[in-house]
Amino acid sequence: MLRYLLSRLGRALVTLVLIVSAAFIVLRLSGDPAITILGPEAPPEAYAAFRAAWGLDQPIWMQYLKYFGAIAQGDLGNSMRDGRTALEVVGERVPMTLAITLPAFALNLLIGLPAGIFAALNRNTWADRAIMAGSVMGFTVPSFVMGLVLALIFAVKLRWLPSGGSDTISHAILPVVTMGVIGAAVIARFTRSAMLEVLGQPYVRTASAKGLVWREVIVGHVLPNAAIPTLTIIGFMVGSLVAGAVVVESIFSWPGVGRLLVTAVANRDLAVVQVIILMIGTTMVGANLAVDLAYGWVDPRLRTARLKTA
Fold first, then answer.
1. Which CATH superfamily groups domain 94-255?
2. What is the pLDDT of residues 242-254, one digit of tens each?
3. pTM more than 0.85
């Protein structure tokens, strides 16, 4: 088991290095921060001084080595905009992002899981069709379209909620609902598919033939086996919470990490962008690792197989 855990951690580390490396190269090839920050009217001497101060006048391979050397020492760089550490700039926005992503994720589970289970247990009924129709709609509609529609209805037409800002709890409702509805649709769809696949297995029919109550069959046999593919999609959604907040925060002017990423990319604030990408990558890799370890708890057969290979 220890060997398996170390293997997974090693893969996670390699994945993070590749993510950060790709972001590093793309950011430095996409534009000159000196021109973006100082403006097009600055004298050439100012550009040269800026590039020298931030090490942008060096070859990209040397910048790359210095960047990872600094990361190894715990230095993630400073913001080119205000000189503060990039970690501080990003860290002050994290609570605002968590304020909408955590309730949205709870909404994903509270709506998506029961809806998917209910639809599978009532296959081909009007309830199943209604749930799947709503799931397909939520699954296919982009988040920016969903956000704009909700803002148009509840902020512009009905005037029940504010269309943007972050002053009160009511300002968080539309961003949370936007992310929650889309995520719930995805979970409902995958949960239903997983449930239907397990319901068609021979051991489910055998359990029913032995006289077990249908509720016991569902709880003891169907749900644990259907949980594995559902856990996979839930883990992916946990990892992509911050990435998914980029569009929603921009629509509703919510001052979180997602909106900061858009601003930092536009301003070529390299260190801030790299910290956010590192945070998103760490979240996704960590969530997938946690889900992978949870497989053994959900399905003892996987745990036994890993113990044999460890």
1. MetI-like (1.10.3720.10)
2. 777 888 988 898 8
3. no
